[in-house]
Amino acid sequence: MGVISSLTIIDTSLVIISDRVAFGPNVSLITVSHGTSLLSRQKYVGWGLPIPIRIEDDCWLGAGVTVLPGVTIGRGSTIEAGSVPARMIKNVPTVEEEREDLNNP
Fold first, then answer.
1. DSSP letter string over 15-44?
2. Domain 7-100: CATH superfamily, name plus number
């Protein structure tokens, strides 16, 4: 019985994988993001922001790791199975704050 595994890369931007990087099964590298506006969700507005991912030399990503847009995994890092390395983009305003913002389309 064999092992079924996959590496999924959604690459609307650069995915930079350096030397001697190892991936466990079912790792996802996702470079596309979307807006955080609550009002745009209610209006079903969708769009993508291509933001690169960088994985430096000698890294190991365990099983089921998901790497999100804009993340750099530093040289020699080990990412534990099931982890989601991420970065904070911004605080999301309330729908009321969005409606009051005259610059919000």
1. EEE-TT-EE-TTEEEE-EE----HHHHHTT
2. Hexapeptide repeat proteins (2.160.10.10)
Q: Which of 88, 59, 57, 47 is nearest to 71 (CA)?
A: 88
Active site residues: 34
Higher pLDDT, 100 or 47: 100
pLDDT tens track for 32-49: 777 677 887 787 766 666
Q: Which residue type does 55 have?
A: I
- Say if pTM beats, i.e. exceeds, 0.90: no
Judge contact between 77 and 39, C-beta under 8 A: no
The sheet with strand 53-55 has its strands ordered as 15-17, 53-55, 72-73
Structure tokens at 86: 């991420």
Instruction: Write phi, then psi, for 9 (nearest 5 degrees).
Output: -125, 115
